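Quarterly update, task 2.4: FER-bound model.
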Amino acid sequence: MKKILLTLVVLGCGFMLAQAQPGGMGGFQMPKIDVTFNPYVEAPAGFDQERANIPHGTLETVEYFSTTTDTIRKATVYLPPKFDAAKKYPVLYLLHGIGGDEREWLQGVPNVILDNLYADGKAAEMIIVMPNGRAQKDDRPIGNVYAGSAAFANFEHDLLDNLIPFIEGKYNVYADKMHRAVAGLSMGGGQSLNFGLGHMDVFAFVGGFSSAPNTGMPEVLIPDVEKTKAENKLLWMVCGSADGLMYNSSRLKAFCDEHGVPCTLIEYPEGKHDFVVWKYGLYNFAQLIFK
Ligand code: FER
């Protein structure tokens, strides 16, 4: 009897270990959903390497008052090379992950990637706004960052009611959906899919890179298939094949394919939950928006 019990315990532990995620991104691996991925095309060598002999954009930090948190909040802003205050620009809102803040995306050198795209004539000129997506009074990524999920959901209000109006007051930018995009990594990917598809009157272009479990169910993100087909201009996703979070992206991709909603999901070969995949995401997404 004891032997049988012991065997069962050992088998049970083995099963649980086998379920654990290789990427170690918390929780257990969700089942894989069978989808047809869009073709992966490697980014050209050097796409994320600074080139000395081309014009460079600039990075600055802005501060705005948020009625959502009743605090002054920060965002990092990238202005394209030869930024001209007399010209009107579209805006990409680029959102970070669970352990990040308004500076996390700098690890992904968005300024270098965009400078290079402009030098090669591959992207429309745009301003990139990298906010702090943890909308709570103390928005630093300290302690148990997984406990801050509600603040990531709350950012919907800060973004729509406070940050977008602030950016549109401070910079000479277009203020219509065809000139606004939202994309992000992990928790920021989930936010982008939730807010972008939830507010198609605000954002025409939506990107999710390695989107996290905060990603809404497809039926919630796309309650009206015909409306989404008519109003969304880009739904673009990427996730690493070795990232335990593929489930969130593939669930949405499967729904889109079933209902004829245009949607891209690229599986980054051997991609993990890191900036290799997210830089690739930005490199590609930036070329597809505002055109
Ligand atoms: C989770 C796994 C990962 C989760 C969030 C994440 C809220 C986010 C990861 C990231 O933003 O990098 O179970 O639950």
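Highlight for this quarter: Residues 25-27, 97-98, 146, 149, 186-187, 212-214 surround FER (CB under 6 Å).
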